[in-house]
Amino acid sequence: MRQHSRFSFRHISSIQVTNRLNGEPMGYVADLSLGGLRLVAKQPLAVGGCYEMVLHVPEQGERVRQIEAVVICQWSRKDSRRDSFEMGFALDRPSAEFTAMVAQQLPRRRKVF
Known about the structure:
Layout: E1 6-8, E2 16-19, E3 25-33, E4 36-41, E5 50-58, E6 64-79, E7 84-93, H1 96-109
Antiparallel strand pairs: 1-3, 2-3, 2-5, 3-4, 4-7, 5-6, 6-7
């Protein structure tokens, strides 16, 4: 059972991810939660590996907010529908910016009955 609510992005590849250390593209975010994220990429990353990422979050207009996150890869699998890989990451050292961004998005996406 999930410990955190998560949200997915309707616009595929709306949040691009790069490696904080070398600036290389890593993929794009498929969904986020307060506990981590799911990344879609062309190449798999090592399970158990620690990665420093920068999430490039689009804002109003042409602005893009950059949010850093240190994560640990929990799992990796080939996506059978596309020529890509999906990987699940747990936050190792959550930044205040990451936590605030996810918390800000979650209430908007909940349905009220």
